[in-house]
Amino acid sequence: MLEIGPGVGPLTVELARRAGKVVSVELDRSLLPVLGETLAEYPHAEVVSGDVMKLDLGGLLREKFGDRPVMACANLPYNITTPVLTKFVETEGIRQFTVMIQREVAQRSCAAPGSSGGSSFSLFLQYYMEPEYLFPVTPEKFYPAPKVTSAVVRCIRREKPPVETEDEELLFRLMRGAFALRRKTLANSLASALGRPKEELLAAIRAAGLPETVRGEQLTFADFGALCGILKD
Questions:
Q1: Is 168-231 a CATH 1.10.8.100 domain?
Q2: Which CATH superfamily includes the segment(s) 2-157?
Q3: Where are the alpha helices (DSSP H) in 25-80?
Q4: Hey, is 220 helix, strand or coil?
Q5: Is 157 exposed, middle or buried (0-12, 13-18, 19+ CB in 10 A)?
Q6: Residue 144 Cα distances to 140, 148, 175, angstroms
Q7: Are strands 150-157 and 129-137 parallel, antiparallel or unpaired?
Q8: How high is the pLDDT of residue 198?
Q9: Which of 162, 166, 173, 156 is nearest to 216 (CA)?
Q10: Same fold, 2-157 and 168-231
Q11: Residue 137's closest CA among 99, 85, 88?
């Protein structure tokens, strides 16, 4: 089990009681002595001092866990949610992760492609992982109480992507570009993001069986895959 940001270790202790090995990454060096005392009776729990965003996370997992698949967990500060989740996704040794994040971010992350609540990040996340919204955590559960509600989300790595493509780079450019101008049509958003003529994009949209007025948030993975196949040629 990999934990990010153990703090003084309340969750770490619960993990250590259940997992065969726990590695916690803590940025605040002043907490290391406290964690050492808290985890003294759990020799299989180890604390690594460092910034998760600067660590070679894949290398750390190989060093500590070998080839074994790893589960990760974190109670994330809201301002680093997206970067940390991105790093989790890009670290193939992490087979699943459970995080507590801001409720609105959790809802967007789990929004089905083609629904109004999605985003380019939710598409990126769901291309690699299957997210599940587990439950909300209300402000009074914290001290001091934040002004927003949190939620717990679990993400399990997919065996294969939800859509096949020969040009993954273009697929992600399309998904990012589709949300670049949210109030514009897909053709206008992609013309701006990709630097391609609008007429070329309209032709591709029609060829994919989509209306010319479609917006990026209305597309499913299958729609993006179809567009990618048309535009790569």
A1: yes
A2: Vaccinia Virus protein VP39 (3.40.50.150)
A3: 32-38, 57-65
A4: coil
A5: middle
A6: 8, 12, 38
A7: antiparallel
A8: 95
A9: 173
A10: no
A11: 99
Q: Which long-range contacts (CB under 8 A, 24 or more apart) does 33-37 make?
A: 34/8, 34/9, 35/6, 35/8, 35/9
> For tokens 């179809």, what's the residue?
226
Residue type, 160: K
What's residue 60's pLDDT? Answer: 98
Residues forming a β-bridge with 155: 97, 131
Backbone torsion region of residue 32, taken as left when φ is above 0, otherwise alpha when ψ lies between -120 and 50, otherwise beta:
alpha
Q: Retrieve residue 120's tokens.
A: 């380019």
In one-letter notation, the amino acid at residue 91 is: T
What's the pLDDT score for residue 144? 86
Domain ranges in the chain are 2-157, 168-231
CB-based contact 17:9 (threshold 8 Å): no
> How far is the C-alpha of 142 from the C-alpha of 197, rounded, in Å?
51
Per-residue pLDDT reduced to its tens digit, 215-227: 999 999 999 999 9
DSSP class of 101 = E
- Token look-up 């559960």 returns 141
